[in-house]
Amino acid sequence: EEDLHSLYSWVDEVPLSRPKRNIARDFADGVLVAEIVAHYFPKLVELHNYSGAHSLSQKMYNWQTLNTKVFKKLHFGVQKADIDRVCAAEAGAIERVLKLVQTKLAKVRTG
């Protein structure tokens, strides 16, 4: 519970392009995750590569783009099974991915 609160607080520190109403649905297409990474590492993320999506194929494309173009440069990746869960807006899935992203970004930022 405390971990989730600190994770949500971390997300709230980043100015996002759309409001968070339902975190599982709002983050399913990967766009807001791209914005979070871009907030800390603007040179790593070309936000025009990510478009808001309702279709599964576009959501998957966004996440695959994050994995290959961004996360790879940060020396980690999100497993396909986790991406599938996030795209389906399964409860708890985005929180696990955001925690991974938060941990990896902090590691890179502190060297």
Structural write-up:
The protein is mainly α and 111 residues long. Helix content is 59%, strand content 0%. The protein is built from 6 helices and no strands. It has helices spanning 2-12, 23-26, 31-40, 56-70, 80-87, 93-110. Helix 5 (80-87) packs across helix 6 (93-110). The longest helix is centred in the last third of the chain and has 18 residues, at 93-110. The radius of gyration is 13 Å and the shape is globular. The termini are far apart.
Keywords for this entry:
mainly alpha, globular, 0% strand, 111 residues
Poorly predicted sequence stretches spanning 5 or more consecutive residues? none
What would you report as the Rg, rounded to the nearest angstrom?
13 Å
> What structural class do you assign from the helix and strand content?
mainly alpha
What's the shape? globular
Mean pLDDT: 96
